[in-house]
Amino acid sequence: MKDDYLWDPSSAPDPEVERLERMLGRLRSNAPAPDVDQVRSAVLLGPRSATLKGSRYVSLRFLVPTLAAAASIVAMIGLTWQTTRGTRSWEVSRMTGQPRIGSAPLAGTGRLGVGQTLVTDAASRARLDVSTIGQATVDTDSRVRLVDTREGHHKLALERGTLHAFITAPPGQFVVDTPSATATDLGCVYTLHVDEDGTGVLSVTAGWVAFEFNGRESFVPAGASARTDPRIGPGTPRYDDAALELQAALDDFDYGTDAAAKARDLQFLLSSATPRDAMTLWHLIARVSPADRAAVIDALGARVPMPTSITREAVMRLDKAALDQWWDALGLRDASWWRKWKGPYPAVVK
Amino acid sequence: MEHVLNPVALHRVTDREVSLSGTIRAVAAGDRDAFSQLYADYSRMVHAVLLGRVPRRDVDDLVQDVFVTAYTRIRELREPAAFGGWIATIARNRATDYLRQSREQVALPDELPGGDPIEAETFAVLDVIRGLPEAYRDTLLMRLVEGMSGQEIADRTGLAPGSVRVNLHRGMKLLRDKLGLET
Which of A88, A96, B67, B137 is surrounded by the fewest CB atoms within 10 Å? Predict the structure, then answer.
C-alpha cells in the first residue's frame, strides 16, 4: 500500500485507494450553505422553528411546554411574518400527507428558504408560492430545493419527482434546474418530471419553456414535450399528439448510439413528418450533421415553405436571423423574447 | 515539565487561528460572506460525520441543520480554534438525535440502491465503513468521500496530524481486510 497517497492525494496514487475514492466520491454533496437571512428568522423563532430547526418528528414531551408557550407564540406570529416576508424564502403549504422542509415536518404552512429542500414522500404533496409570480405544486416522491429568489429571478432545483408550475411573470424569471437540463419559463403552465437517474420529461400546457443543458437547447411550445437525459441533455421537442412511430424514431435519433440506426430514424422522421411536425423539423436543422442538414431543410420546406427573405445557404450555416424568420413562418405564437435573447441553436458565423 | 516550542508549527497554527477567529467573529456579527466561508471550509467534514451515521437521503438536510445550530450558538464558542471539534460534536449529537427519534417514531429505510451495480457496490462499501470504529470511520469518509487530504482533516477536526495519519492507515487496513482486498 502506498501510505503517502492516503495522507497526501497529490502524491503517487495507490490504485485501490483511488478506486475507492472514485466510487465513494459519488456520495459527495454540493448543497449550498443555509441562507443567513433565513437563519436569522429561525433565531427569532427559537431553536425549534418549524422551518429550519427542529426534529423530524413531534414528540409528546415538547407538547406541554409548547402549549404553555402558546400565548408567546401568538405574539410572535406577527414578528415572524414581519421577519420572514422580507427574507429570501417562499411560502409552502401542505396539500396532503406529511411533506418536510429539510428534516422538519410541515404541518400546515411554512417557509422554504434559499438552500432548503422540500421533500414529499409517497403520500404527500405540497404547494409553493413562487414569490409573487405564480405557484408550483410538488407531487409525491419529490425533492426540490430553493436555489435562489430575488427580484426578477427565482430558481428551483428539482432533484427528483414531479413539479407543476403556473407562472404569470414576464419570460425568464422562473428557472428550474434538473440533473440533465434547465427549464426557463417564458410565461406558461408546465409539468416537469425527473427520475432518480436524472432523465426526465417536460410537458408544456400553455406558453413556452426553453429547455437547456450544456448549450443544447429545445424550445417547447404548448401541447408539446421534450425528454431529457444526462448523456446529451434535452431531446428534440415534439407535439404530444404526434404519431407514436414518429415519437419513437425521434427518441432513438436523439439518444441512440448506433449511427446506421440513427440515419434510418432520421430518414423516417423526414418522410413521415406532418405539417404540424414542422416545429420538430425546425429543431432538427441544428441537431443534424452538416451532411444531413440539406435533407432536413428540404423536409421542412415541403411542410412550411422557406420565406423568400432568407436563403438556403444562410440556413445551412445556421444563421440566426434566417432561422428566426423561418420559425416565424411556422405560424406559432410569438416567442421572440427567448429567440432574440439566446436562440435554441448554435451561435452563427456571419 | 519542560515545554519545547516549535516556532514553525507555532507560527502556522497561530495564522490559522487568527484567520478562523476573525471569521467566527464576523459570523457572530451576522456577516453572510463569513458564514459562507465557514460553510465552505467545514461542510465536507460535517457531511462525512453525518454520512457515517444516518441514511444518505437525509444527510444534506442534517448538514443544513448543523450549520443553523452552529450559527445560532456561535457566541457560546469560547475558543475559536476549537470550532472544528465543536461543530463535529454538534453533528454527532444531531445524528444521535435523528436516530433516536427515528427509532421512536418510524423505522426509516437505509440506502435503497437501484439496479445500478456501481451504486450497489458504493453503498455496500459505505456500510462496511460505517461498521468501523468511530475514529477510523470519520477519518476515512473525509478522505475517501470528501477528498480531503490528511493535513486538511487535521486542520478541520483539530486532531493532531499524527493521530489522523494513524486513523487513516489503521482504518484503511481494517477496510481492506473487511473488503477482502490485498494489502
Answer: A96
